[in-house]
Amino acid sequence: MGTTSIREVAERAGVSVGTVSNVLNRPDAVAPATRERVRRAIDDLGFVRNESARHLRAGRSRTLGLVVLDVTNPFFTDVARGVEDAANEAGLAVILCNSDERRDKEQAYLDLLEEQRVQGVLITPVDVDGDRLTRLRRRGVPVVLLDRHAGEGDYCSVAVDDVLGGELAAAHLRDLGHERIAYVSGPMSLAQCADRYRGAIAGGELEILAGTALNVASGRDAGERLLGLRNPPTAVFCANDLLALGVLQVMVARGLSVPGDISIVGYDDIEFAAAAAVPLSSVRQPRHLLGRTAAELLVAEAAAAEPGHIHRQVRFSPELVVRASSGPPKATL
Amino acid sequence: MGTTSIREVAERAGVSVGTVSNVLNRPDAVAPATRERVRRAIDDLGFVRNESARHLRAGRSRTLGLVVLDVTNPFFTDVARGVEDAANEAGLAVILCNSDERRDKEQAYLDLLEEQRVQGVLITPVDVDGDRLTRLRRRGVPVVLLDRHAGEGDYCSVAVDDVLGGELAAAHLRDLGHERIAYVSGPMSLAQCADRYRGAIAGGELEILAGTALNVASGRDAGERLLGLRNPPTAVFCANDLLALGVLQVMVARGLSVPGDISIVGYDDIEFAAAAAVPLSSVRQPRHLLGRTAAELLVAEAAAAEPGHIHRQVRFSPELVVRASSGPPKATL
DNA sequence: AGAATTGGTTGAGACGTTTCAAAAACCCCC
DNA sequence: GGGGGTTTTTGAAACGTCTCAACCAATTCT
Asked: Is B202 in contact with B169 (CB distance < 8 Å)?
């Protein structure tokens, strides 16, 4: 049923398959009359090209893979939109995959993408160990790191300076007079978490509360743990806004004042940060641009002549956005 | 480079291509020794199956399409996760597409999916006119409506009772004593918006403020317009939480009290609703389940023998969640 | 009028996999 | 050492598309 092939079209139009293919791919190489006849046959039969066959013949697909830590995180959906925009402009479709911060899922999706012979992969890797990626690349699949800096220049990458971001956040809190500051983190194996920490600790001490994931639930959990401390900090810097929102929820639920009792600074400046119970101070990243740039780099790398492609590392700067959730500590007793 | 084929594996292992294929697909039909030899060759060469070729041969792909209005909306990402879970269990990959509430983008993605010969399409359609979908289905592509009820029984569908949801929300506000209630909507061409309105107006009058899209910006816009009214309502029911958050932002920015000056009820109960400046009353939908069920239906339909598949319409019930954003109106003067 | 040019059209591979009937290799037993 | 049976392996065909050299028919040139 569903499958009408180019041959049936050719038969009906009374031409050869080559001609039908020409109508499809270089219409003006074929005489107007024939062209019309073929077009009509296509419509009548409801013919739709088989992309797999095209791909098989052409040797390259019109697809690109995007692997993120969690689509449920607004940061990544904004990034994904950027990727989508750039990919569409290049005539590519995007396969969006969720690693869920898990190595095995990441690997499974990479395998899948490779079987699909995607033109390349955009990925926010789960961990620093790039073994999986190296292998992929050795087999000729272009890989661009997303939201992660490629140190040794052997990948293209688009990132935001997370160390600087951490610095900005911590400096802001210290400037306000905070001395006991906690860092609420996701898994430290994530480069983002580690880098933001490195930046934050540069200016002074910092207590770490590492969670299991970069989401709201994990933030709530951290919030509870904060309250359990004998001598809780007067401010927390969270590795992303979801964690911050979780912490905030707990504080509000317990009747604590933010920033009166405790200041909170998030990271990413997702749209919901500004609309939170207490509008969240946060470190803003150019999310859409991040995705768009990464996709553009990938397209360029995929198009490049095999030899001598020079990997580019793009690094954007984050920006501190101060809102209501951060303020001076209560007068110290 | 990248492309090692089954034939090179065969050569290296000193067997025929048929045998390699057997090792891949029914390992125990091949003698242990040979199997090992082939496996080694595969590893040595870094061979990866070409999914397009498999698909071409098999006639059916291992992929399913999901078309949503906006990935940036947390409602849809949660739904998408449900779809992903179910699809993975069935060994299928998901291609996620954004129609952006635009007919042309929707059509473009449907074309793309059809060229990819996806096993089927899950879609929240942009408008009621099902012409695009009918055509798709006539060509043998299973289509399941998502978050949208298929009235005439000619599609499978998984939806939540939006009329009931609208009723719940409006009844709640009326019970609180509100008499002037506004409905902040997205485009009325979206069935969701229209149905929720129908439900809400069932119990009494309602003023409509239709916006251009179901997002926060559109909500802010509606908020501004609300404030411009000569005789503003004492409560608003929003077609989704993003709109509600937008309205809320404007109210808070203008120093109005919620629910004191104006009550707000949203729809979807996304995770951020509870964390909003004023925790949002909302109508909850089983998002994850919605996605999962839809994918399961699609898989079933795709597997079904061509003839006599009976389309199922699943309808879940929404649930009102009352939080702080809705309360009695100020004492009427 | 014949040669050369141009504009259209054709048909035979080839892409990488799977399938399946047929061939080959092996084993056991008389 | 030859038959019967089983287990392995083989090789060719097919999936739908695109490419490219070859071909055909008009036209234009000499």
From this structure: no
Q: For strand C, is any atom closer than 7 Å to the CB of B2? A: no
pLDDT above 60 for B74: yes
Q: How far apart are CA A70 and CA B41, in angstroms?
A: 36
For an interface test with A, the pick among B42, B269, B271, B282 (most A C-beta atoms closer than 10 Å) comes out as B271
Start-to-end CA distance of chain A, whole Å, equals 80
CB-based contacts of B183, cutoff 8 Å, min separation 6: B196, B197, B200, B201, B206, B207, B208, B209, B236, B237, B238, B239
The Cα–Cα gap between B204 and B241 comes to 22
Q: Shortest CB distance from A275 goes to which of B52, B81, B248? A: B248
User: Rounded to a whole number, what is the distance in angstroms from the first to the last CA of chain B?
Assistant: 80
Contact B248, B216 (CB under 8 A): no
Predicted pLDDT of residue A128: 80
| B269: amino acid identity, one letter | D
Q: What is the mean pLDDT of chain B?
A: 94
Q: How many residues does chain B have?
A: 333
Q: Which of A2, A56, A216 sits opposite B139 (nearest CB)?
A: A2
Q: Return the pLDDT at A306.
A: 58
* Rama region for B191: left / alpha / beta (φ>0; ψ in -120 to 50; rest): alpha
Confidence of residue B307 (pLDDT cuts 50, 70, 90): low
A-B CB pairs within 8 A amount to: 124
Residue A169 token pair: 């956040």
Q: Is B190's pLDDT higher than 80?
A: yes
Q: What is the pLDDT of residue B8?
A: 96
Task: Going from the first residue of chain A to its last (333 residues), give the mean pLDDT of each consecutive group of 10, the final group possibly shorter.
Answer: 86 96 96 96 96 94 96 98 97 95 96 96 89 89 94 88 98 97 96 97 93 96 95 96 97 94 98 94 98 97 77 96 96 57
To test the contact with chain B by mutation, choose from A45, A52, A63, A111 the residue with the greatest count of B C-beta atoms within 10 A, namely A52
Instruction: Using the structure block, give the residue that is written with the tokens 């289905």.
Output: B137
Which residue on chain A is closest to B3 by alpha carbon? Answer: A139
The answer, for B78 touching chain A at a CB cutoff of 8 Å, is: yes
- Judge whether B111 is closer than 8 Å to chain A, CB to CB: yes
Is pLDDT of B288 > 70?
Answer: yes
User: Which nucleotide across the nucleic acid strands is nearest to A56, CA versus C1'?
Assistant: C15
Q: Which residues touch strand D (CB under 7 A)?
A: A 3, 5-7, 17-18, 21-22, 24-25, 47, 49-50, 53-54, 56-58; B 15-19, 22, 29-31, 33-35, 53, 56-57, 59
Reading the block at residue B164, the tokens are 């009931």
Q: What is the pLDDT of residue A333?
A: 47
Residue appearing with tokens 């951060």: A326
Q: What's phi and psi for A188, nearest 5 deg?
A: -70, -10
> Which amino acid, residue A307?
P
* Structural contact between residues B64 and B298, judged by C-beta atoms closer than 8 angstroms: yes
Q: Cα–Cα distances in Å, from A155 out to A14, A117, A151, A309, B129?
A: 51, 19, 8, 10, 47
